[in-house]
Design a protein that fits this description.
The chain is globular and about 50 Å long. The protein is mostly helical. It has 16 helices and no strands. It starts with 20 loop residues before the first helix and ends in an 11-residue tail after the last helix. Helices cover 79% and strands 0% of the residues. α11 crosses α13.
């Protein structure tokens, strides 16, 4: 019996996706949305710190921005299995554009209050919660299985560019234009994402098994599938660990930059961009050279590298030492984040993909609790020591996960 072979990852058609208009549109929507996400992460953190002087309130603001990922990520995955993903995506960007316009007017007229900023952060988080179950699932569908890893790696590389560009632009805007300039850019880029989402012509197939399947059943089927797949369960567990103990550094790094390293907003933006630059470079390498057999070890090694470098960053004590450590941390982020979606999309049948990606959003939703944890510890131990404690806990948890799911560190074949 013969089996169909997919194009080799090293074939000349590797980047043919860039000639696909629908892929470019959904790719650009993610690029614009990602820029706003990371621009706001730095700008809102510094704005809150300047207004309150409290590291805990800085982390609480990022908590407000990330908690929707946990609360609505999995339900959105179930909803995306039953509805038109293009309309869901466009609707999300429309809401973000309107909300950003209101916040810009409030800031420009001097009426902006901290609770307005928090409310906008929650809405922004709801929009970002759609990225994995809606936008990235649609991106994988447009790319097809043959170029799935390339599509996700390219998309991940672009997101890492936005993670570098966002803090640089956010720090400069806050320094020279204030919070109103931040919201004006948010309106422009979310509006551009809305236009790109509306122009997509691809007809997404509903992956609900039957029209009569209820919302709760659709969600529970995704959970049941994850329990039967050690690979999917292992990837989701490592995702929880990295988001709980690793990515929480983003919330406290601006405070470390200002209080411990004594940097201005522009240099804090440069520091935050270093990790994203490393992730971008490594993502391009993955898109070019990674082979299916290496998906699992790249994923697990990347997670360990990232949290390990965050731990060393917390101990660095100087800008010169912190910058290269965060650059190397970005190498780990690239392997972890690119292979995260690739492994789940490869490991789930077509009718389960949006549901499994919804569970991924739920796992990423562990980040808000890590943010609150590092914020609370910062009030007690100081920001640098708090980050040392949480990152070391993450390294320990990853070691336990590696012993429970050995497949995550072994090479394997993928169809």
């Amino acid at each position: 019996m013969s089996t169909r072979r997919e194009p080799s990852p090293g074939s000349s058609s590797r980047f043919a996706l860039l000639r696909n208009a629908d892929f470019l549109r959904i790719w650009l929507a993610g690029a614009f949305g990602g820029t706003i996400r990371w621009l706001e992460t730095l700008a809102l953190g510094l704005y809150t710190f300047h207004e309150t002087g409290s590291p805990f309130l800085v982390t609480a603001m990022l908590f407000a921005r990330t908690i929707p990922t946990m609360l609505v990520g999995a339900p959105l995955g179930a909803l995306a299995a039953r509805l038109d993903r293009k309309r869901l995506l466009a609707g999300g960007f429309a809401v973000l554009t309107i909300a950003g316009s209101v916040l810009f007017v409030l800031a420009h007229t001097g009426r902006l209050e901290l609770w307005h900023v928090a409310a906008g952060a929650v809405l922004s988080g709801c929009g970002w919660a759609m990225d994995h179950p809606v936008r990235r699932t649609l991106l994988g569908e447009i790319a097809g299985n043959a170029r799935l890893a390339v599509a996700v790696s390219l998309d991940t590389a672009t997101i890492h560019v936005t993670r570098a560009l966002g803090p640089l632009v956010g720090g400069a805007l806050l320094h020279w234009q204030g919070i109103a300039g931040v919201y004006l850019i948010a309106v422009a880029l979310n509006g551009a994402s809305l236009v790109n989402a509306m122009l997509i012509r691809h007809r997404p197939a509903s992956d609900a098994p039957v029209a009569a399947t209820g919302f709760v059943r659709t969600l529970s089927d995704g959970l049941a599938f994850a329990r039967t797949s050690p690979l999917v369960l292992g990837v989701l567990t490592v995702t929880v660990i990295v988001n709980l103990f690793g990515f929480s550094y983003v919330s406290i790094a601006p405070v470390i930059g200002e209080e411990v390293l004594e940097l201005d907003p522009v240099r804090i933006g440069l520091l935050m961009a270093a990790e994203a630059c490393g992730a971008f470079l490594a993502s391009l390498a993955l898109a070019t050279f990674v082979r299916p057999a290496w998906y699992q070890p790249v994923f697990s090694t990347g997670a360990a590298c990232f949290i390990g470098m965050v731990c060393l960053f917390s101990l660095s004590g100087s800008f010169a030492a912190a910058l290269p450590l965060l650059l190397v941390a970005g190498f780990g982020v690239a392997g972890f984040s690119a292979m995260q979606s690739t492994l789940l999309l490869h490991g789930a049948p077509l009718h389960m993909r949006s549901r499994v990606m919804g569970l991924l959003s739920l796992s990423i939703g562990a980040a808000p609790f890590g943010i609150l944890l590092v914020g609370a510890l910062s009030e007690w131990l100081g920001p640098a020591r708090a980050l040392t404690v949480t990152s070391f806990a993450g390294i320990t948890a990853l070691a336990v996960a590696a012993s429970l799911w050995p497949a995550l560190r072994r090479t394997a074949r993928h169809p």
